[in-house]
């Protein structure tokens, strides 16, 4: 006899587990199915984000930043370090502990909210009276409503599949047991830059090959140029406009044949190669075709603006549908869908979803870029403020970058905020809140900010829109 549920969520990543918790809060009987396993074969809730994405990468970024500070920056503070050494094994152990803490945290939240958890692969069996039969590992469940949150997988380079030894996805990149002498990356997106930064700080010679002719094309051009300048100074070698050819993996490492921006044939020899050329929606084993669930040409589940699929009572959220592949976007969709099932008016504003790249300097933005405003012929005003003129940044010893405001020329409504510099990931939240409330740059300029704080750079950039900065 199948177990009956009001809502069944397939996938326990940020979109799935949050949807399950919110549905349970709203009074539904909820089940969540997830197949991630830890090293011991047990459940590892949290999906790609917790297990091989956002969380472990931030743990390694923090460790590598400490190492670089100890080796290069402590002396200027009067702190002398002798015999500095690196234990990569301990660094990875700490990363794994951070991941496990998050896994267990989600397990606790499921128990607290009375969400039934099933460890195994979730897949559709058939439509039944009053819902759908879902296979959960070896169990059979029936749900009135189903939320698919199966996430995404790393896109492999054609002809060079991941072996996670020499040719690495984000998964393998987080498990490298020793600092490679030479590290190659294909793709200068978020994953490429973050992983490149980790291993560069730890001593690897890092080369990034990017097919596009521009660096970080989705980022505001002025901000991207400032970031590129910082990365070049750090020693990250970034080649743009390349065309990757044959990739050979052997006992000595990996050989990448490519043509540079001038069309000249080049060869890059590295110990390890990280491929970060995007991700693809994960519908493997879902049996979408068995129930007629519609997929698009990319393999993503087709949904409307409210995350409804073509099947009644079936919803989909996160990386497996359209829109940015961001954990927080998945969470917002998960909450919205649970509330829609309850007859409420769940809402996700795609225009105020923040983006962050956790490099040093960090890069964060929300809203439109200057090039997007120009492309649509918008009349706008811009204001910038450099961290080199910010007292807290000077005290931190990190004055790289700036804050940039873009506002409507007529109404002064904030259209976009772009930051490259220290703690940009935290500073961007003020801009998100301001844009959600349709604030003007004048609103931010008139708000008192604590002194000394990095957030004063936000205020000053807002003042700069009206050409009246006080500290620059």
UniProtKB/TrEMBL annotation:
Keyword Signal: no
An individual GO BP term: 2-oxoglutarate metabolic process
Location (main, coarse): cytoplasm
Main EC class the enzyme belongs to: oxidoreductase
Binding site for NAD(+): 187-194, 210, 278
Swiss-Prot/TrEMBL keywords: Cytoplasm, FAD, Flavoprotein, NAD, Nucleotide-binding, Oxidoreductase, Redox-active center
A GO-annotated cellular component: cytoplasm
Catalytic activity: N(6)-[(R)-dihydrolipoyl]-L-lysyl-[protein] + NAD(+) = N(6)-[(R)-lipoyl]-L-lysyl-[protein] + NADH + H(+)
Cofactor: FAD
SUPFAM superfamilies associated with the record: FAD/NAD(P)-binding domain, FAD/NAD-linked reductases, dimerisation (C-terminal) domain
Pyridine nucleotide-disulphide oxidoreductase dimerisation domain: residues covered: 353-462
Cellular localization per UniProt: Cytoplasm
E.C. designation(s): 1.8.1.4
Binding-site positions, FAD: 58, 122, 150-152, 319, 325-328
Occurrences of domain FAD/NAD(P)-binding (ranges): 5-334
Example GO molecular function: dihydrolipoyl dehydrogenase (NADH) activity
Keyword Transcription regulation: no
Cofactor: binding comment: Binds 1 FAD per subunit.
Note: The active site is a redox-active disulfide bond.
Protein name per the record: Dihydrolipoyl dehydrogenase
Species the sequence originates in: Hydrogenophaga borbori
